[in-house]
Amino acid sequence: MSEFKKTNCHFCGYLCGFVAEVEEGRVIDLQPDPTRYPYDPRILAGCRRWPMNLEVLDHEDRINYPLRRLGERGSGQWERVSWDEALDDIAARLEELRQTYGSQTLASMIGGPHTSFWPLHRFMTLFGSPNNMGIGQICWNPRIWMDVLTFGWTVEADITEDTGCVIIWGTNPAESDNSMFWRRLLEIGRSEVPLIVIDPRRTRTAAAADLWIAPKPGTDCALALGLLHVLIDEDLVDHEFVDAWCHGYEELVAHVAPWTPEVVAEICDVPAEDIRRVARLFGSAATAALISGRGIDQVGESVAPTHRAICCLRAITGNVDKPGSCVLAEGSDFIAEGDLGGTYEHFEALNERCLNTSYTPLQCYEGLAKAEALTERLGRKLPGRYLTSAHPDLVLHAMETGEPYPVRALIVEATNPLLTYADTHRVYKALKGLDLIVVLDYWMTPTAALADYVLPAAGAIERPTFQAHGGVANIAYGGPAAVAPYYERKTDYEIFRLLGLRLGQAEQWPQETFEEAIAYTLSPTAQTWEDYSDSGIYFRPYGYAKHEQLNEEGIPQGFATTTGKIELASEFLPQVGGTRLPVPGKRRQLCSPEFIKEKTAEGWTSIDLITGARKQPYNASMYFQNQAFRQKSPEPVVEMSEATAARLGLEAGDGVVLATDQGEARFKVAIVVMRDDVINADYGWWHPEWSCEEPALGGMWESNINCLTSCSLDQGEPMIGTWSYNALDCMIKKDDRPLSWEPGFSREA
Length: 749
Ligand SMILES: Nc1nc2c(c(=O)[nH]1)N[C@H]1C(S)=C(S)[C@@H](COP(=O)(O)OP(=O)(O)OC[C@H]3O[C@@H](n4cnc5c(=O)[nH]c(N)nc54)[C@H](O)[C@@H]3O)O[C@H]1N2
Ligand SMILES: Nc1nc2c(c(=O)[nH]1)N[C@H]1C(S)=C(S)[C@@H](COP(=O)(O)OP(=O)(O)OC[C@H]3O[C@@H](n4cnc5c(=O)[nH]c(N)nc54)[C@H](O)[C@@H]3O)O[C@H]1N2
Ligand code: SF4
Ligand SMILES: [Mo]
Description:
about 750 residues, alpha/beta, binds iron/sulfur cluster, 28 helices
């Protein structure tokens, strides 16, 4: 007899609802659930990933049992051990390292939102280490930080019937979202509402737009200052809103005066007339929305000022917390991740050991405390562990040198840092020198291959899901597991709990299962675990213009900033080494002058580089196991315009090698429509069909663009520490040698 169980897909951030047909604890069929958020048959028809859920659940390459290393690190020799054996030994070794070096000797690495990370954070906090590395500085935090410091909280775009203009800035939802939001943009593209895309590449999103602006990578801050200039110059400003709610308008006027369209056109290499057009479309719409993404998140020094300038664009046009523009999200009714992870409770101890302090004055505990002092006025709790995440440059340095203290152990959860963290050679060497590495994953990845223990994580369908965006909005979605984990897999939550129990954390892990933990998370709300499972979402309709709401004293509550207003000129940022108004910074230079000289003499050419622009069907280093995907997208490519290819003497399909001071990687040329004189290289490429043992490491040395990148602090954003995956430089050269998977390849060549 089979049963039908509600559950969720987690192959992207939407967590679509499904109904699983279950027989004797095994899923035998999976069908979309039309009763639950965010069901839409068009999305499912366009999604290539969800049908692989069944295959992935029982894929022959999944890790099903705890594995312990035998032989040399990376030698590929493993023994299957019981959970008790694995966890007892890991706990004992961690305790010994803690006795010898102090609790900060343990570091962790996480990736994108593939799972709930607060259980790891709770474990790390209770162990006593602040050294969580993650994608914080590059993927999410820059925008969160600048929104919070300008508006007092984060803003989310709100596209409704009222929206009269949309700017899509450095994001390509056609490939990165490919779901509800992308469908909505397609509709807007076809409607009267102007859609503007700012991207060096003519993406499918750009193709759907009315106007495509292709600036030189990394010049977006200047572009935003130019737009502000035109808005002010042509009086497309919402003066009523600015007078009532913005601080520092006159300063902003003076600041952007020199940034004329002509000056900006020169810097960004776009027509001055286009800058005027964008400003006029945005400024003359009664309501306009702006959505930005990774293209401006990962551009070194300029990342914070670019986001600040974008905040100013929203503010002076009155497009704040108003239907059709954006909403200031509300803090969550359910328990926030910062509290679940214990960040605030253990603040002092974490702060004392935090490596970031004095290097990245915003992205550290002291920066968090200053910001939190503002937001707490309106009862909003920041996602502390993300906003304090340790800088990889500093943690890797501590691993390499033992300074300022030795970092000897590492937990890797839901990331494959040899592919996705910057500077693969450096990450590799640092990992090789550690005393203990524990990896939680579904698969044997190149990173897992270097571990002492690989622990089998349960995936979606076999675990409940609760996606809460760090708790910066009052929404969470997901649902229950359909089955108990297959084989001996366990949920990430359970793994950290069981480890915690062995290290004196028993009292802080009262809920035995992740399901119970989610039920507890929801306990301050009116919704039970059962209601949540049934509807797949926790959501309370939000209001607009919350700054006008009266507080207890009967005056409008305003914005949770130093001045209570939107800070066009920031009173906060100078305290952490920033400027009152946005000033563009330098971009990251990956090639030293000596390197360029040497390579040029050998026939290489210097060129601008962006990396990792999203493409279906892969996601970071994931889904390369899927044979259908591999057949359809078989090669790691570097994209360039026809003119660029001609200048470099290249044709579509040619092999090329890219290089920087850090290292090299090889790709095939694809000719696309994009700006001239910049190339875009794929990221995440490896070959799971290869052996993961050394030296092959799943083929990850061949076409891994992060062999070229760097996380060094010296050219990063100085307050947050953002390093760059875009607006880079590299050397390029044609390379006809076959790649390892091509006919004619020989190891000697
Ligand atoms: N298929 C797929 N989807 C994904 C992911 C994936 O790996 N694969 N990853 C997920 C993750 S972790 C994230 S963070 C999101 C990211 O989602 P998005 O923010 O949409 O990221 P991309 O699709 O890379 O789009 C970034 C765009 O910025 C452009 N760009 C590069 N440099 C610049 C610049 O200097 N200025 C401007 N204006 N534009 C620039 C690139 O050409 C690219 O089109 O995607 C998520 N979705
Ligand atoms: N050059 C370059 N580098 C980049 C980027 C770029 O654009 N260019 N983008 C950056 C960005 S924005 C991001 S967010 C990162 C993304 O990079 P990551 O999010 O770190 O992605 P992956 O490295 O593919 O790691 C995901 C791993 O987690 C495992 N996994 C998935 N779900 C779970 C789970 O529930 N539990 C456990 N334990 N494991 C799970 C998968 O099997 C896989 O091995 O990459 C960054 N790196
Ligand atoms: S991959 Fe994303 S869009 Fe596709 S079904 Fe899964 S959650 Fe939904
Ligand atoms: Mo990301």
